[in-house]
Design brief:
- The protein has about 550 residues and is of the alpha/beta class.
- It is globular.
- Keywords: Hydrolase, Signal.
- GO terms for molecular function: hydrolase activity.
- It comes from Congregibacter brevis.
């Protein structure tokens, strides 16, 4: 893809890194030794789910500055009120810690240069592509995003012929919302020099029917198109607005912290620019992509996991070792239903080992995308090798998605202290896709029950754009394992609403080494909290996704109010 010159991007990154370094905060103050002063904000009257056993009987909460001052009885908290104290009357509402998403891609859907085709008719996609082509300069790529092959009323996926019918002379790429596949038109194949006889690249696939290209391309095959044709360019201000817009939308869903799980140079600068403008509405754990200039630049500058401040902090470096769950390309030991297709590996064992060695040598944690059981085994082999003689604290290596597990993999995940991040809205939202896996295999996928029973700190993950990021939908999906059509997928993996709340708060903070700062309503922690219109622990499980978000507070300040 054509962007600003690398040297210019590097200058932006280094300047942003320097800014973050100057703003980096030390650990929170020792609140136990700090004399209590008057509160800036007091919340009373609601049902409090603090997610902290020590404050489980709370009736009220006081905030001073950007941290929780005290949690306790109404009488005790009212004693902290002063003449300037703001008050929130939460009667009839439920107060919870801010929700955390440990794996998402907030900037993946670049609406400045791409059209959203999350619609239910192929004819509507065609109309949107035609309109986007009219807005795109001649010869440039026409781009679309949020395509979902299983949700069309026509009961079939989009093809290159569908695109050719409306945009024949410009290259077109319609990206699946999952990010691992796309549909391109004949012009795209032509400028890339790909025809029916072109072999599949290693780690990728050109899909065919009766020997003819369908237009669907997967995994590393998508990268071939990045180097051909003229791609739209997005300026820095547009990127800043994109970061602001997406974090504002996420805050409206109750999220106070999210994750960019494959960050590039433009992404880091976008978040820094939004933060400088006072328009970053959720905290960001930034995971640089392992094959990106961002990661290389951070290593050269001596950056490492944990660098930054409470609003924007560097997390683990991210790699991807296999395909997608929602796009049915993940690498498994058994094939997809009714096929001889076992999925796609995108890294070899040697490449995985080298990535882990490099991360450790540069003081980075690592998170490797591994959906299938074959790939999870490969990643664990690399982790086990490095951890064999490990000294010091658990580095909390991560397996991103960690979708298909078995009893042996669970024991190895527990033994290595690895953090799995399975999809938390997928059972509900992507039901049509699980037909390709079958009901038996789904009993071992997105295995929240199995992780919890094994004592594993399973993290919350939407993987947006592939999955919806709304925490209330996540609660319903994990509690019911029922999709939008009423089908049950893996009822043995159901967890309680209280357990789902813990996943989305406490475990989310643990996954980024930030449990000292967030995840519970505890004195000394950041004042990130949410007001819900109903109590998730008392709501019909099949109505959890409809619980209204009344307000979201970050640092004790409202970033969303209904």
């Amino acid at each position: 893809m054509r962007h600003a010159p690398i040297n210019e991007k590097r200058r932006h990154l280094l300047k942003a890194l320097a800014t973050a370094s100057a703003a980096a905060s030390v650990s929170g103050p020792s609140w136990a030794n700090m004399a209590l002063g008057k509160a800036d904000l007091i919340v009373t009257g609601g049902t409090f789910h603090t997610m902290d056993i020590a404050t489980s009987n709370a009736q009220a909460m006081a905030v001073r500055g950007n941290r929780i001052l005290a949690v306790g009885s109404i009488a005790d908290i009212n004693d902290l009120a002063g003449p300037g104290t703001r008050r929130i009357d939460a009667r009839g509402l439920t107060v919870t810690p801010g929700f955390i998403d440990a794996h998402s891609h907030p900037l993946m859907a670049n609406e400045a240069i791409s059209v959203d085709v999350n619609v239910r008719q192929i004819s509507k996609v065609q109309s949107l592509l035609q309109q986007q082509a009219q807005r795109t300069p001649p010869g440039q790529w026409v781009l679309a995003h949020m395509y979902d092959d299983t949700k069309f009323n026509e009961g079939r996926p989009l093809t290159r012929q569908d695109i050719d019918a409306v945009v024949p002379s410009q290259p077109v790429m319609v990206r699946h919302r999952g990010g691992h596949t796309a549909v391109v038109n004949s012009q795209a194949f032509a400028i890339a020099g790909i025809d029916n006889d072109t072999p599949d690249p290693e780690g990728g696939r050109f899909f065919r029917e009766d020997g003819q290209l369908t237009g669907k391309v997967a995994e590393l095959a998508m990268f071939i198109f990045n180097d051909v044709g003229e791609w739209p360019v997005v300026d820095r201000e547009t990127n800043r607005k994109g970061a602001s817009l997406m974090t504002k939308r996420m805050a409206a869903s109750g999220l106070t912290s999210t994750t960019d799980a494959f960050g590039d140079l433009e992404g880091w600068v976008s978040y820094m620019d939004a933060l400088d403008a006072g328009e970053l509405y959720t905290r960001i754990a930034y995971m640089p992509g392992g094959n990106t200039e961002a990661y290389q630049t951070m290593k050269r500058a001596g950056m490492r996991s944990g660098f930054g401040n409470p609003m924007l902090r560097v997390g683990a470096v991210k790699y991807a070792a296999d395909g997608s769950a929602s796009e049915r390309t993940m690498r498994m030991s058994t094939p997809f239903e009714g096929t001889d297709d076992y999925g796609i590996l995108t890294m070899s064992q040697e490449q995985i080992d080298a990535a882990v060695d490099d991360a450790v040598a540069n003081d980075f944690r690592i998170g490797i995308h591994a959906n299938g059981d074959v790939t999870i085994d490969m990643v664990l082999q690399a982790y086990e090798r490095v951890l064999k003689d490990w000294e010091g604290v658990n580095p909390r290596f991560r397996i991103e998605h960690c979708s298909l597990v078995n009893p042996l993999l669970l024991k190895r995940i527990k033994a290595t202290g690895t953090i799995p991040t399975p999809f938390y809205t997928y059972a509900y939202y992507h039901g049509n896709k699980w037909v390709d896996y079958g009901s038996e295999k789904m009993r071992s996928m997105f295995a929240h029950r199995s992780f919890i029973d094994e004592g594993i700190m399973v993290a919350p993950a939407s993987d947006f754009t592939p999955g919806p990021y709304e925490p209330m939908m996540a609660l319903q999906s994990m509690v019911t394992r029922q999709d939008s059509q009423g089908r049950i997928w893996g009822d043995n993996q159901r967890i309680t609403a209280a357990e789902a709340m813990q996943v989305c708060t406490v475990n989310g903070a643990y996954a980024s080494f930030e449990e000292h700062d967030k995840g519970t309503l505890t004195p000394g922690k950041l004042a990130d909290f949410v007001l819900l219109g109903q109590d998730p622990l008392k709501t019909d499980p099949n109505a959890l996704k409809d619980i209204p978000i009344v307000a979201t507070y970050l640092d004790g300040q409202a970033v969303f109010e209904a």
